[in-house]
Amino acid sequence: MSELTTAQRSKIRRLSQPKELAPDEEGGELNIVPFLDIIMNILIFVLATVAVTFTATIDTTPPASKGSGVRSEVPSEALNLTVFIVNDGFSLKASGGNIAPGCQGPGAGITIPMKNGKYDLEALTVCAARLKGSSPDFQDENQVYITANPGTDYQTIIDVIDALRASPQGDVLFDNVNFKVPK
Amino acid sequence: MTQPAPGGPGGQPPAPGPKASIVSYKAALRKATRRNAHEQEVNFLNITAMLDIMTIILVFLLKTLGESSAAVPQSDDLKLPISLVKTPPGQDGVLVTISKTQIIVGDDKVVTLPGRESTSQTGVGARYHRNGPNDLFIVPLGSALQSARRTDKAVRTAKGLDPSSSEAIIIADQTTPYRLFIEVLFTLGQSEFGKYHLMVMQGKKTN
């Protein structure tokens, strides 16, 4: 058997080398960097949007209209607190009658007048806590009625609900809210 | 056959020997190719599968958020009031939206509202009321709610829930006047909706 010549050896050496692929021939990989950029932007946008819209709900029942409507059963010795949101402030009414200015006892007038042109929500919380603490019979009561002037903003209603819900110390005051139809 | 010795006397180049056969040449070429071949190196990470998964998760997330009632689009026409309440939003109930300009039940526009001055005095207006301006029942809203109530009743029965009354999720703009708000609540009550969830935005008060 004849041996390989030098030329044949050289040719074999050349042909047996692994072929180096040109940069544009390497497996046809897609450039996904722009795609990744878009995905990351969308992801950040979605997460940021979700963080902004943290919502909650306040549960309530149909409003009482002129003495009728859905109401929870309340005992006769209940406080039966009603908050009227009027243009000059808050007027509070309980089973004993209208609460006098200063929230000290029964009497006519605006119970909590406006302060510097704004509704005094802190005073409302203090007054609600005082009324609830005025008798041991009221300790388990958590129902409050709210009514307002026809033009009162929804945000003001929600502020009042928040003020009546709990004391600054975190004690639950009146977290069962019902609405009344303004007369 | 004898081969001439390489580098013969006199410094002459060796005489070329006879050429090898094609078969031998090809066998030698295959052998050399096998010897030089090396396994292909993994010089990049194949993330296509991971991208597929990420895209599917993203689409799923967007779809879920879009369908959730907790996702309330905020605009100039509808800004939720801010509250300290942290009760998680209820998912069950017919969606009633009160924006600055319209009342919507589900996805259907029911009533176009007049300006705020008018709504704070007479609500949606006398022409939409059942018995004159002092009535609280909004007729177009009541009709839409009756249809929604029928559907919700069937859904509640199928789910094994109490079908005697339905629940509503109320999304109202923060400037909605109390008069309009109470008209909507009253109409809901008349349409056998017994419990309402008032949607608010969690947050701290600025004043």
Mean pLDDT value of chain A: 82
Give the termini distance of chain B in whole angstroms.
111 Å
Q: What topology, given as strand order, has the largest sheet of chain B?
A: 1-6-5-2-3-4
| Helix count from the secondary structure assignment of chain B | 5
What average pLDDT do the residues of chain B reach? 81
What's the gist of this structure?
The complex is a heterodimer of chains A (183) and B (207). Chain A is an alpha/beta fold.
Keyphrases for this structure?
heterodimer, A: 183 residues, alpha/beta, six-stranded mixed beta sheet, 7 strands, B: 207 residues, 6 strands
How would you describe the overall organization of this protein?
Chain A is an alpha/beta fold and 183 residues long. Chain A contains 4 helices and 7 strands, in the order ααβββββαβαβ. Chain A has helices at 6-15, 33-52, 121-132, 154-165; strands spanning 55-60, 81-86, 89-94, 97-98, 112-113, 143-148, 176-179. In chain A, α3 (121-132) packs across α4. Chain A is rod-shaped, with a radius of gyration of 37 Å. Chain A starts with 5 loop residues before the first helix and ends with a strand. Chain B is elongated, with a radius of gyration of 40 Å. The longest helix of chain B is centred in the C-terminal third of the chain and has 21 residues, at 139-159. With 207 residues, chain B is α/β, with parallel strands linked by helices. β1 (55-60) of chain A pairs antiparallel with β6 of chain B, so a sheet runs across the interface.
Secondary structure layout:
The complex is a heterodimer of chains A (183) and B (207).
Chain A: H1 6-15, H2 33-52, E1 55-60, E2 81-86, E3 89-94, E4 97-98, E5 112-113, H3 121-132, E6 143-148, H4 154-165, E7 176-179
Helix pairs in contact in A: 3-4
Chain B: H1 22-36, H2 48-67, E1 82-83, E2 94-98, E3 102-105, E4 108-112, H3 116-122, H4 139-159, E5 166-172, H5 178-190, E6 193-202
